[in-house]
Specification:
The structure is a single chain. This protein is α/β, with parallel strands linked by helices. The protein folds into three domains: 98 residues, no CATH class; 141 residues, NAD(P)-binding Rossmann-like Domain (Rossmann fold), CATH 3.40.50; 137 residues, FAD/NAD(P)-binding domain. Helix content is 29%, strand content 16%. 43% of the residues are buried.
Length: 438
């Protein structure tokens, strides 16, 4: 059949192999499987593999692996990828991070979303363009407090509109949760969410960035800021309240009970505080963090057991095509998995667990516990500034990102972009804010 088609389009079935996440497959990961095709045919060959960098694309062509590069997810992250390569604007490319949030919306019947590109799926509904944004009718000074994914995107988009923006963050490096979570196994590419926005902001003359600048409500008011956007993020709950229960886990107050924030603090500081021995992880979040912490701890020599009320470990990652890979990885590193199980209480040297189906009780020995549950929004600054909005000391005050509603990084970026798009507009909360096809 080599010469029969006009073009060969080759990839690896099924979808989970063809569109693997960056955590489990590097850029160009399909080459080892499809490189033989050009030796069999003189016809053009196109292939995929989440090629995000022009260098990797050119390399695949020059090495005779492919004639054409298929770029689905990279074109979702940046629909102008080919044009930016053509014009030599390589630094402006908004590279895909390989998180598969775009994939996750497909089987759920939801509008497509992209962590890197908040305008994806909103071109017609809201009139948003990936590159252009309407200039402000009257530029003003805006203070954005918090430089995580929401704050970075809000500052970038507000600056692109022509507003004068001060972006402040308490931490010495901007990026918020993204910088911290990118320290976990395989999540390095997620830093692109921060790196692209940091680069874009650097080219905007009216956006100033001030890291290592914690702000109190009085600090904000003393600055004479009139327009304030609060993007102070969220923290992981210490009491174990998650998706499956509205009650705290008994015994969560003990000093050897940790949260993902504690684990990330250890990674950042280089000072490991998790005691040696068996770690029990209670994952009532069901996305990637519980499995990542289990993999991390197992790699550091801990015995690890993961308990989850869900039928599968990291169950939500079915939608990102990762669940089987995550489970296989955890098994490979010796992690024991208990599904359909809840934690009833944390005792001095063991945890009491219950079977979700029959209510059977068991005890698991432990040296420490990590509770991966809900996250609590940090609203203190916003709440303290609300009276100033009422008295007229502030003209506008917005709460965005995880500080408004903890969720995916993609949702935080979307929230920041929407705040910038709607800044200065009167938005009726009772009206649907996008077009609908009737």
């Amino acid at each position: 059949m080599a010469e029969l088609p006009d073009l060969w389009d080759v990839n690896i079935s099924d979808w989970s192999n063809d569109s693997a996440t960056s955590r489990f497959a590097p850029e160009g990961h399909q080459e080892q499987y499809i490189a033989f095709v050009k030796s069999l045919t003189s016809k053009p060959v196109v292939g995929v593999g989440r090629y995000t960098s022009p260098d990797a694309m050119v390399s695949a062509v020059r090495r005779g692996v492919l004639d054409l590069i298929g770029a689905a997810r990279p074109s979702i992250a940046d629909p102008f990828l080919p044009d930016k390569i053509r014009r030599g604007r390589l630094g402006a490319i908004r590279e895909c991070i390989g998180c598969n949030i775009c994939v996750a919306t497909d089987p759920r019947g939801l509008p497509i979303r992209c962590t890197q590109n908040p305008t994806m799926g909103e071109e017609w509904r809201r009139g948003w363009h990936p590159e252009r944004i309407a200039p402000a009718a009257k530029p003003v000074d805006v203070m954005v407090v918090g430089a995580g994914p929401a704050g970075l995107e809000a500052a970038r988009a507000l600056g692109q509109r022509g507003h004068h923006v001060q972006l402040l963050d308490a931490r010495p490096e901007v990026g918020g949760r993204v910088i911290r979570e990118a320290l976990l196994p395989g999540l390095g590419p997620w830093r692109r969410v921060v790196e692209w926005r940091r680069g874009a902001i650097a080219e905007l003359p009216d956006v100033e960035v001030f890291p290592a600048s914690p702000m109190s409500a009085q600090d904000v008011l003393d600055s004479d800021a009139r327009h304030v956007v609060v993007a102070t993020g969220a923290t992981w709950r210490r009491d174990g309240r998650g998706r499956s229960t509205g009650l705290p886990v008994a015994g969560h107050e003990q000093p050897d009970v940790f949260t993902p924030d504690d684990v990330l603090d250890c990674l950042e500081s280089g000072q490991w505080r998790i005691p040696a021995g068996r770690v029990v992880i209670y994952d009532d979040d069901h996305y990637v963090i519980g499995g990542l912490i289990a993999e991390l701890l197992a790699g550091r020599g801990h015995e690890v057991e993961v308990i989850t009320p869900a039928p599968l470990i990291s169950q939500w990652t079915q939608f990102t095509l990762e669940q089987e890979r995550i489970e296989r990885r955890l098994r490979d590193v010796g992690v024991q998995i208990h599904t359909r199980t809840t934690v009833q209480s944390i005792e001095r040297d063991h945890v009491v667990v219950a079977d979700v189906i029959d209510g059977g009780i068991d005890e698991l020995p432990r040296a420490s516990v990590v509770l991966v549950a809900d996250r609590s929004p940090r609203t203190d600054l916003h709440d303290e500034l609300l009276p100033a909005l009422a008295t007229g000391e502030l003209s506008t005050l917005q709460l965005i990102g995880d500080a408004d509603a903890p969720g995916l990084i993609a949702q935080a970026v979307f929230s920041g972009h929407r705040a910038a798009q709607q800044f200065g507009e009167a938005v009726d909360p009772d009206e649907v804010e996008f077009l609908r096809e009737v």
